[in-house]
Amino acid sequence: MQNVLNLRGHYNLQDMEETLTETVSKMISDHPDIGAFVLECTELAIHAHAIQDATRLPVWDFSTLVNWLQSGAVRRPFSGWI
User: Fold this and answer.
1) Please, is 51 exposed, middle or buried when counting C-beta atoms within 10 Å of its C-beta (0-12, 13-18, 19+)?
2) What is the pLDDT of residues 62-81, one digit of tens each?
3) pLDDT digits over 2-17, tens only?
4) At CA 69, angle to CA 5 and CA 44, rounded to 5?
5) How far apart are the C-alpha atoms of 79 and 9, rounded to whole Å?
6) Angstrom distances, CA of residue 46 to CA of 1, 38, 64, 67, 76
7) Average pLDDT for residues 14-33, to the nearest whole number?
8) What are the tens digits of pLDDT across the range 35-64?
9) Dihedral angle at the C-alpha atoms of 42, 43, 44, 46, nearest 10 degrees?
10) How many angstroms separate the Cα of 14 from the Cα of each of 18, 20, 21, 82?
11) What is the maximal distance between C-alpha atoms in the chain?
12) What is the pTM of this model?
């Protein structure tokens, strides 16, 4: 994780994911009123599912923002059940 924070080299995805899930679990333990997470770093979006799986809370990131904006800009015909 220090490589990412210091902007050099690369990092191990599995180690990063374990560190993130441990960190968010501790955050929830210390602050039980947390209701969601917003991942501001684009490097973290690939770990959003693991964070949500570990916390059972909503997780938003750059990808969800882009998908939301795109879904409003390029509407598709409704399909489904009413």
Assistant:
1) buried
2) 999 999 999 999 998 988 88
3) 666 677 777 788 999 9
4) 20
5) 46
6) 15, 13, 11, 15, 26
7) 96
8) 999 999 888 999 999 999 999 999 999 999
9) 100
10) 6, 10, 11, 42
11) 52
12) 0.75
User: To which residue do tokens 């902007």 refer?
Assistant: 7
What pLDDT is attached to residue 41?
Answer: 85
Token pair 């690939």 is found at 46
Give the pLDDT score at 1: 59
- CA distances 73 to 29, 69, 76, Å, are 39, 6, 10
**Could you tell me if 58 and 71 are in contact, meaning their C-beta atoms sit under 8 angstroms apart?**
no
Helix, strand, or coil (residue 42): helix
